[in-house]
Amino acid sequence: MAEKERAGSGLEVNVEDLGDISLISLVGEVDVYTAPMLKDAINSLVERGRYHIVVDLGKVIFLDSTGLGVLVGGLKKVKSNQGELGIICNQERILRVFRITGLTKVFPVYRSREELPTKEREKQDAG
Amino acid sequence: MPDSPERCYELEIPAKAQYVSLARLLASSIARSMSFPEEDVDDLKVAVSEMCTNAIVHSGNGTAEKPPILVRYCAGRDYLRVQVSDRGPGFDIGCVLNRERTDLLEKGRGIPLIQCLVDEFQCDSQPGSGTVVTVVKYLRPRECQP
């Protein structure tokens, strides 16, 4: 299942289920204006009982602390349901913000979709 | 703060979230025209975004109609200074700067992030008056120590 949301806001949000993991793919900028779109996507997944979430930041060109705050909020929600929230990112400009704030110690960080946990990747490949 | 001569530009934006990207865009354009390395342009974009976001979120004394935010960019020979002014209620900056962060998941990442991304940071704010935040980034390599 894939849901795509686009607004004239500088951020595109795509949600798809890959086995036990739900993948949120972002394209564009995550700031105080667009972060609510990411928050809505995470909240919708949690409401559906999807507590294992990975956010793909591979095509994000900008992210500030508002975006980090939304990811942290999502992490707290899934953790309270024995879930996990990780990120996919190999861009130094984005990872730098995570590193400075210490959040690389908090989020599982995958460099690419190929690094997702093997069981889930097999499901992704099969899909 | 550095001496003149410098070229200054001013941008006044409504205190609304959709205008933060405009302030970022102008910061990056000026920084690139000054030949800042692309990593430093990225740092400036994040810093300006944080400053404008804070100004918008905290501006206006809680009223529906918030006064605009003024962003002033001053390009010197080897630096770019950006100043964001709001007419919000102000706050005790000491509470923010002196707070020890013990939980990575708690709020309040914005100002520490700005401080790490720029070479100079100054915040003038008092309860009851507006807030002026000024940052300076120099045109030379400088490693950030998180």
Helices and strands of chain B: which structural class?
Answer: alpha+beta
Helix content of chain B: 25-40%
| The CATH topology of chain A | Transcription Regulator spoIIAA
Distance between the termini of chain B: 23 Å
Largest sheet of chain B: 5 strands, antiparallel
Element pattern of chain A in H and E: EEEHEHEHEH
The CATH superfamily of chain A bears the name STAS domain
Largest interface: A-B, 26 and 25 residues
Q: Outline the low-pLDDT stretches of chain A.
A: none
How much of the residues of chain A is beta strand, in percent? 25-35%
Strand content of chain B: 15-25%
Number of domain modules of chain A? 1
Largest sheet of chain A: 6 strands, mixed
Main attributes?
heterodimer; A: 127 residues; alpha/beta; Transcription Regulator spoIIAA; six-stranded mixed beta sheet; B: 146 residues; alpha+beta; five-stranded antiparallel beta sheet; 4 helices
Describe the structure.
The complex is a heterodimer of chains A (127) and B (146). Chain A has 127 residues and is α/β, with parallel strands linked by helices. Chain A contains 4 helices and 6 strands; from the N terminus they run E-E-E-H-E-H-E-H-E-H. In chain A, strand 4, helix 2 and strand 5 (84-88) form a beta-alpha-beta unit. In chain A, helix 1 (35-47) packs parallel to helix 2. The N and C termini of chain A lie close together (10 Å). With 146 residues, chain B is an alpha+beta fold. Chain B has 4 helices and 5 strands, in the order βααββααββ. Chain B has helices at 20-33, 38-58, 93-97, 110-117, and strands at residues 7-13, 69-75, 79-86, 120-125, 131-138. Chain B has a 5-stranded antiparallel β-sheet with strand order 1-2-3-5-4, with helices on one face. The longest helix of chain B is centred in the N-terminal third of the chain and has 21 residues, at 38-58. Classes of the chains: A alpha/beta (127), B alpha+beta (146). The interface between A and B is medium-sized, with 26 and 25 residues.
